[in-house]
Each structure stands twice: as C-alpha cells, then as structure tokens.
Design brief:
Helices cover 52% and strands 18% of the residues. By secondary structure, the protein is of the alpha/beta class. It folds into two domains: 133 residues, D-Maltodextrin-Binding Protein, domain 2, CATH 3.40.190.170; 147 residues, Bacterial extracellular solute-binding protein, family 7 (D-Maltodextrin-Binding Protein, domain 2, 3-Layer(aba) Sandwich), CATH 3.40.190. The strands form three sheets. The chain has a five-stranded mixed β-sheet with strand order 2-1-3-10-4, with helices on both faces. The longest helix is centred in the C-terminal third of the chain and has 35 residues. It is globular, with a radius of gyration of 22 Å. It starts with a helix and ends with a helix.
C-alpha cells in the first residue's frame, strides 16, 4: 500500500511539473518578419526573459503571421489562442481607439525621441489607455520605434501634384484621408502584401521606413524615395493576454517589465542606427532620394482634415472627450518641446 501511495504521489508530482513547464511555454504571434531591427529586439526580449527567470517564463516567437494573420492578432490574444503578440494597434481602431491614435495619425510627430516619450507619457498619465487595454483583456509590455515613414514609389514624386491619381498603400482610418487630400487613391493592405503589390502595380507608392525598405527588399520593385515624413510615431507593441500576465508570479512580472524597459531602450538606439546604414545601402542599389519642399508639405497639410480635432470628436461620442483632449495636449506639448 505504501509503495502504491508513493507511486501515485510521484505521478502527481510529475504531472504538476509538466503543467508548470507547459505554462512556461508562451506562444507569441508576430506580424513582422524576423529580420527587422525591431524583430531582433523582440527575440532578445524573449531570450532574456527566459534567461532571467531561469526558464520559468519561455517565449517562442512565431514570425510573419505564422499563427494567424495580422488582422487576427487582437482576437487571438483576447481568446487566449496565443499568449503574446507583436501587433500594431492601428489595425484595430474600433477596439483600441486611444492606442490607435499615436500609431496612425499622419504627420503628427517628427522624430524618434518624440515617439518614445509621447507613448510613455500616455501610459503614465492618461487612464484611458490602461482602461482600454483591460477592456480587451490585454496588457502592453513595451512599444517599438520606427524611423520616419517616407514615401517609396515606382515613379518620382516631388510635389502634391505628383501624387494625384497614384495608388498608395494605407492602413487605419486616417492615413487614407491624408492620401485622398492629395488626390491619391488609398489602398489598405498589410505589410506582408507590400512587395508583391508594388511589383504587380496594385499600388504605386507606400509610406515606409528606409531600413524596412531594405529589410523587405521593396527597393527591388520601387526605386524612388520622396523625403516627406508621412508618419512618425510608436509602432507595434509587444502585448500579453491579461489572464496569462496575471498568472505570472510577482517576481517574474517584475523581471518581464524590467526586460521590456531595456528592450524599449535597445530598440530606440538600434532603429536610429539602422537608418544611416540603410540609406547608404539603398543608394548603392540605385535608389534615388528626392526632395519634397516644405511649401509642398504645408500645401498637403492645409488640404487635409484636422486629424486631432476629428479624433477628439470621435472620443466625445464614446464619453471619452476629456481624456482625448488630455492626450492631445500632452502630445502637442512634447512635440513642441522635442521638435
């Protein structure tokens, strides 16, 4: 009898270890390919979390939508089908309107420093961001940075007039309106479709960071880069299912957030360094960098909607007008301070 009891207890202990091991194996679906600067930071984050938690928390990253398309990431995360995602909030404006704004409003930031400080200030000072994440059952761990989205095209673009009739890749709700203000046709698509659609002529141009133009090899099918910042801001976040997050021990939560903070800083430096390297590479590939005069940029802005005012009006309808105005006030203050 004693031997049977001991055997039974041993089986239970082994089962418990297996469950614990299974709990430590977290799946992360990623919208990006593995070779971008930011993706390399995410792999570092996963490796470092495992190292510092003594493998109590292990993250397996599935690159390039291996577990689901980019547009499915939020639902996958909500449902617990994946534990983490690398996803851009602007793909889900109805569910994440506060997080979407800095990830999508066109021509609203100027440099990496602004993007970094603005999203951090929102998370610290505007309760609507935490409320929105919790309502969706998710937790943001950290956000990435992108170099300014300039315009890569198949033909030269040097003015607003040159944009008329062009088919341009867009995302979210506001980027299409910016393109339409210039007389262009907005075509919504996700990143993995970009190369093929440029190659086939489905689109003529796309806002893209110069290092991503190198990573995604779009320079092979479009040889002109227009130096106008279409968009700048925080980009995809690393998000975790809230229940999964809450299941972690306090010790491991602290470790994960410390590594997330370091990953954020690592990403900021790496992205800045990548721009200079990419510009040199692209020039060697025969890509031409074209000036876009400030007078033309102002003409474009004047023809465009007031994106801040429109976003506040939408948040007013959701009963979030006060926090939206607070968000925009912080945004404009930091933009001016770090211009």
């Amino acid at each position: 009898m004693r031997r049977s009891v001991l055997t039974f207890l041993a089986v239970l202990a082994a089962s418990a270890l297996l469950v614990a091991a299974a709990d430590a194996q977290l799946k992360m679906n990623h919208q990006m390919s593995a070779n971008t600067v930011g993706s390399q930071v995410d792999q570092w984050f996963a490796d470092e979390v495992a190292k510092r938690t003594n493998n109590e928390v292990q993250i397996k990253v599935y690159w390039s939508e291996a577990l689901g398309k980019a547009k499915e990431n939020l639902q996958l995360l909500k449902d617990g089908a994946v534990d983490l995602t690398g996803m851009s909030p602007s793909y889900y404006p109805a569910d994440l309107p506060f997080f979407t704004a800095p990830n999508s409003l066109p021509m609203a930031m100027d440099n990496l420093k602004q993007a970094d400080l603005i999203i951090k200030a929102f998370l610290q000072q505007v309760p609507a961001f935490d409320e929105e994440a919790r309502a969706n059952g998710i937790k943001p761990l950290f956000f990435h940075h992108l170099n300014p989205y300039v315009l890569i095209c198949k033909q030269p673009v040097r003015s607003v007039a040159d944009l008329k009739g062009r088919k341009i890749r867009t995302w979210g709700e506001d980027m299409p309106r910016l393109m339409q203000a210039a007389g262009a046709t907005a075509v919504t698509m996700f990143l993995p479709e970009l190369y093929e659609n440029l190659q086939r002529g489905v689109i003529d141009c796309a806002p893209f960071a110069v290092d991503w133009i190198q990573n995604y090899k779009t320079y092979e099918v479009a040889k002109y880069i227009t130096e106008v910042t279409i968009w700048q801001g925080p980009t995809w976040g690393v998000w975790m299912n809230l229940k999964r997050w809450e299941s972690l021990s306090d010790k491991n939560k602290k470790i994960v957030m410390q590594v997330a903070e370091e990953a954020n800083a690592r990403d900021l430096k790496a992205v800045g360094d990548a721009e200079e390297t990419a510009r040199a590479f692209l020039k060697q590939q025969g890509v031409q960098f074209l000036a876009f005069p400030e007078s033309e940029r102002q003409k474009w802005l004047q023809a465009s909607p007031d994106f801040f005012a429109d976003w506040i009006a939408k948040m007013e309808k959701l009963g979030k007008g006060a926090q939206a105005r607070q968000t925009v006030a912080i945004w404009k203050e930091l933009r001016e301070k770090y211009k």
